[in-house]
Write a structure and sequence with these properties.
CATH superfamily of the largest domain: 5'-nuclease
Order of helices and strands: EHHEHHEHEEHHEEHHHHH
CATH class of the largest domain: Alpha Beta
Number of domains: 2
Radius of gyration: 21 Å
Distance between the termini: 33 Å
Strand content: 5-15%
CATH architecture of the largest domain: 3-Layer(aba) Sandwich
Helix content: 40-55%
CATH topology of the largest domain: Rossmann fold
Length: about 290
């Protein structure tokens, strides 16, 4: 159900695992006074503070992966199977990060058996439908399919630049709505999804530019040249159709909080100070002026 959205409402959505991994690898090993690894928490907090300062959202939510959805692993048993196990020094930092976010007044969501991308897609499209401006922060190219007149993507390597539909066209040569079809053709090595052999980014872009969409491509596949590519497409059509179901994000997850409940809260000052002191994160107290301590 839609809402009357307050003028200026904006939602900042953050891909928690994506940003935590980046923070973990960007900062040299760091431990709390008790020896607990802490660098991912420090890096994440700094990134989030910078994003808040840049985008000035009224609402914020961090989404974390809760495991792999059965539908995707049943379609492809090797989905994401190539990924190295999470570093042992990173694993315990997620619970600490969750505590930090709660004390800092930032909503965070993890749902068992659901991926962060689908949580982000559901919240983003619901908020956009209500007239809010949405910024989604992730380095995952799957999320480029969300770009619209109300939803922009922000990549961690360029945190002050919005990727809107024109930006997606500049990056990939296609409209955001075609991103799932593009990924279905090329595959996605980061998720261990194989594409059509011989069909890389340039070929996929050219095919979609010429035919418009996959349905038209299959209808007119005899027009594809060179013949080698046509034969590969026909031989791997089942792969493309399977991939399409995997890379298209779900935007209908049940049991998510209403985005309007994700308003940025006031930090719990005293508890947050104690938390930062306990983990040796005193530098975070000066990230922004008091009394925010964030």
């Amino acid at each position: 159900m839609g809402h009357m959205t307050a003028p200026g409402s904006s939602l900042l959505l953050v891909d928690g695992h994506n940003i935590a991994y980046r923070a973990f690898h960007a900062i040299p090993p760091l431990t709390a006074p008790d020896g607990t690894p802490i660098q991912a928490v420090l890096g994440f907090a700094r990134i989030l503070a910078s994003l808040r300062d840049t985008w000035r959202p009224s609402h914020v939510c961090v989404a974390f992966d809760g495991g792999l959805p059965a539908a995707r692993t049943e379609a492809l048993a090797t989905y994401k199977a190539q990924r190295a196990p999470m570093p042992e020094t990173l694993r315990p930092q997620f619970a600490i990060l969750g505590e930090y976010l709660s004390l800092a007044g930032v909503a965070h969501i993890r749902i068992e058996g659901e991926e962060a991308d689908d949580i982000l897609a559901t919240l983003a499209r619901r908020a956009a439908a209500d007239g809010a401006d949405v910024v989604v922060v992730s380095g995952d190219k799957d999320l480029l399919q969300l770009a619209s007149d109300r939803i922009a993507l922000v990549r961690p390597q360029t945190p002050r630049e919005r990727v809107d539909p024109a930006g997606v066209r500049a990056l990939l040569g296609i409209d955001p709505g075609r991103v799932p079809e593009w990924l279905a053709l090329t595959g996605d090595s980061s998720d261990n999804i194989p594409g059509v052999p011989g069909v890389g980014a340039k070929t996929a872009t050219a095919l979609l530019a010429r035919f418009g969409n996959l349905e038209a491509l299959w209808t007119r596949v005899t027009e594809v040249t060179p013949v080698r590519i046509r034969d590969l497409l026909l031989a791997h059509r089942a792969t493309v159709e399977r991939n399409l179901g995997m890379v298209r994000l779900r935007d209908d997850l049940p049991d998510l909080p209403d985005w309007t409940t994700l308003a940025l809260g006031a930090p719990r000052g005293g508890e947050l100070r104690s938390f930062l002191a306990r983990y040796g994160l005193r530098s975070l107290m000066s990230l922004v002026p008091e009394p925010e301590l964030f």
